[in-house]
Amino acid sequence: MTGAKPKTKSKTIKSGGLGQLLIPLTALAILVLFNLIRDPAFFSIEMATNNSGNSVLSGNLISIIDSASALAIISMGMTLVTAACGGQDISVGAVGAIAGSFFVKVIKAGDTITAGSVILGMLACILATIAFMLFNGTLVAYFRIQPMIATLILFSCGRSIAYWINGSATPQLNSPIIQAMGMTIPGIPIPTPIFAVALVGLILWLVFRFTNLRLYTQSVGINQGAARLNGINPPAVKLLSFALLGVCVAVAAVIGVSRLGQLNHKTLLVDIEMDAILAVAIGGNNLGGGKFRLVGSVLGAYIIQMLTTTLYAMNVAPVNVKAYKAIVIIIIVVAGSPVIKSRLTAMVNRFRAGRVAAAGKGAE
Amino acid sequence: MKRREPLSNTQLLMTIAIGIFVAMYGAAMAFLGGGFLRFQQVFDLLNDNAYLIIISCALTIVMIGGGINISVGGVISLTVMACALYLNGTGIENSFLSITVTLLLALGIGLAFGIGQGFLVSYLEIQPFIVTLAGMFLSRGLTTILSVNPVKVTHEGFQALVKTKIQIPFLGYVAQNGNQIPAKLEIGAVVAIAVVVLSYLLLRFVKLGRNIYALGGNQQSALMLGINVRRTRFMSYVLSGLLSGLAGFVFLMHKPAGNSSVAMRSEMDAIAASIIGGTLLTGGVGNVIGAFFGAMILATIQKIIALSPLNESWWQEMASGVLLGFFIILQSVVLSSREKRRARKSAAGGVRKE
Hints:
Distance between the termini of chain A: 9 Å
Strand content of chain B: 5-15%
Helix content of chain B: over 70%
Number of helices of chain B: 14
Radius of gyration of chain B: 22 Å
Strand order of the largest sheet of chain B: 1-4
Oligomer: heterodimer
Number of strands of chain B: 4
Distance between the termini of chain B: 26 Å
CATH class of chain B: Mainly Alpha
Radius of gyration of chain A: 23 Å
Shape of chain A: globular
């Protein structure tokens, strides 16, 4: 009996740390396993030469991680807004289009595309996105409007603003710098957007690891009144979460524009808000705010992209992918639902209790 | 003298919405004239937006219960496509029977989505946004699986139904050649108005409706009052599913063709209509009459911009965005100022008592 006690204790601690990630990790594992059984060559990675003559890594795995980049970055920002405000921003796609417009507008202002103009464009794009996101944030933090309603405004008119900024339908950006940003840098075989995800992830991780911001964000999300009484300024925390989401959206928009080398205000980051919210939910975060894990949301983004790529590999027509995606999503959220979870926990506990009792009997 | 009860928040917001609708329509009559001076314009707004009015009611019911349903647009597209395919596949010998079956098919699809989503939300306690997002993906995906290409209804009986219009002579106008042209109202518009009235009665006088308000207002107290919270929430989703199926049928009666992009983003329009009409996303507050006027306001903006020199889709989006922003901020300001005044009043009252 004495031997069994610390063992169960360490187990509960372990499951507490992993608990939230259990569902996304399982889903990812099942997807990987399914693909391995279906086609062992699915995950093969090889060196190939791309159109511009650089040798790059290619394969389904690389393309999944690469094409999920924008989604992964936005879902990190979305996680913060969800945690602090208890609601989601549905304007990220539209604001992304505005960000792309600013980026292209500033770059196109000069005659040639140089590294300097690209950096200037990125700065303008980030500033503009932060400004638009602070508009959302002000409505949420000071006017106390539900995030989904507040962001419905930019959701419905954001793409029109993007069109208004640039005028013409699809400005082109032909430059090796843009190509290097959207695809690969010559000499480095890994697509550049993957580095962008790593960079954003690293910065956010450092911020939340070494400051009190995680604590502040979570306490505002869990109980705003209590947070205020403890000296935290809830509106400021909410505004900050929107500003961080703005930076994420700007980076994602730059990736989106430079990947295609052109700007289409109608299709840039279209419908990404839904996928981002989905990624947050699949990552085990509570959409009602409070505790959050950024890793979960990133995992969620990769799960969504892997699902899409798997369906394409199975020759499902692109227009029909949504239906199959919906079924898998339902399975994942049902598995992660509170009712099923508590049933499972009860079952595991009963099993464990039985084992402990049996062990105790054996010792006697 | 009997003291008048102060307006409740939802009534106040609804009154503002009605006021703005009347003001906007009046301004359109004064500055644009033309079509807006004829009564037919009101009927046209109703005819074109009957489906939007119905799903706005669906959204209002769910939002009063503290939930959300973003699958309504997808369910409409699936219903329209399925019904169009069924009508083209069936014979025209007994058109009454085939139209009845089509209506049942539409309601059945809506009901199936309502039951499925209601079960997942209320009995498995999954977040409604995610469940109905999956519902939206599923319904849109099933629409394209049924047919990628647009399907036009060729069924003659149904064509006749589409052309059936209720003519009201005394609201009509006299055309330039002297002919009296009666005002025309489509069956779909009548259905939409009936849905508004019935949902209003349901929410106001039927036990289920009162329970939905209680549930949205405070789930804990609703539970304490002995309300079956889970079943009430389930029923709110079933109702909204059923209404979106009906909206699909009404849509088909207005535009008899299935298409994968039917009612695209109409869920957001419906949410906007509900909010403009005074429904709060937090639940417990709202009114379908307000949602009706919210939908009419959105429809009027579209019409005004279509008739004005700024007839471009991006102007239209911009205008509705700005107007939505105005409404949302107005609501927030009105509600918070009332709250403050009430707090001040009750504080003053407390002092006087002592």
